[in-house]
Amino acid sequence: MFSILNMRSIDEDVTTRARIRDAAIAAFGRRGFTASTVRDIATDAGVSPGLVIHHFGSKAALRTACDAHVLNTARASAESSNDPDRLRDVLTEYLAQPDDYARELAYIRSSVIDESAAGDAFFDAYVRLTEQILAEGVRAGTMRQVSDPLATATWMVANSLGLLVLGRHVARSLGHEEFGTGTINRIAGPAVELYTHPLYTDDSFLQATRDVVSDATTGR
Q: Distance (Å, rounded) from C-alpha 96 to C-alpha 91?
């Protein structure tokens, strides 16, 4: 969940190319990738459709640039993911200014639910980033080594990004009209608590599971 909150862009690039890219991120998140046209994006950016093509070549290439920008923002934030003070700052900032995160979060949601090669690539990149966070956590001494980093990272990403897809239901279940600061206030503690203090009191359930499922780490 908190890697999602880290997605806020701090880029202050005001070039025409950046303005088009930012308009595209907003449009893709709001309308989806198929429904958003180059003309729509150009209008939102205050430029001509020809200028969009001049800078990016095609809508597909523009999407690739948007993916790279959003993921690079996440990658930069990941450098401080193992710092409790940084987590405190991120949560404080989000709860104070949730609208500042809305554009990127909507874009991520559109990417996650988009069943395309580009959508697959975005998800896979997020998994790789989470694997890096796990490895850095082990090196920093804030996380323990897991038996299957790829599977763990995939589960964490699915769990985290699933909040965006199921946000309305999560909020509704907790008595909120929409997924926002009230919902984050309610679930943030329990989410980190599950990572910090395992739910089960011993490893009997883990052993029972390993007795049945194949263990990728041993090749059984």
A: 8
- Give 7's pLDDT tier (boundaries 50, 70, 90): low
- pLDDT, tens digit (0-9, with 9 covering 90-100), for 109-136: 999 999 999 999 999 999 998 998 899 8
Could you tell me which of 118, 112, 141 has the C-alpha nearest to residue 7?
112
The Cα 138–Cα 147 span in angstroms is: 12
Q: If pLDDT is split at 50, 70 and 90, which confidence band does 154 have?
A: very high
State which amino acid sits at residue 127: V
CA-CA-CA-CA torsion sign (49, 104, 101, 138): negative
171-208 residues labelled b (16+ CB within 10 A) or e (exposed):
beeeebeebbeebbebbbeebeeeeeeeeeeeeeeeee
Asked if residue 217 has pLDDT above 90, the reply is: no
Domain residue limits, the chain: 2-165
Cα–Cα distance, 161 to 123 (Å, whole number): 9
At what angle are helices 102-113 and 16-31 packed, to 10 degrees? 60
Residue type, 148: D
pLDDT at 220: 46
Q: How far apart are the first and last CA of the chain?
A: 32
Task: Indicate the class that CATH gives domain 2-165.
Answer: mainly alpha
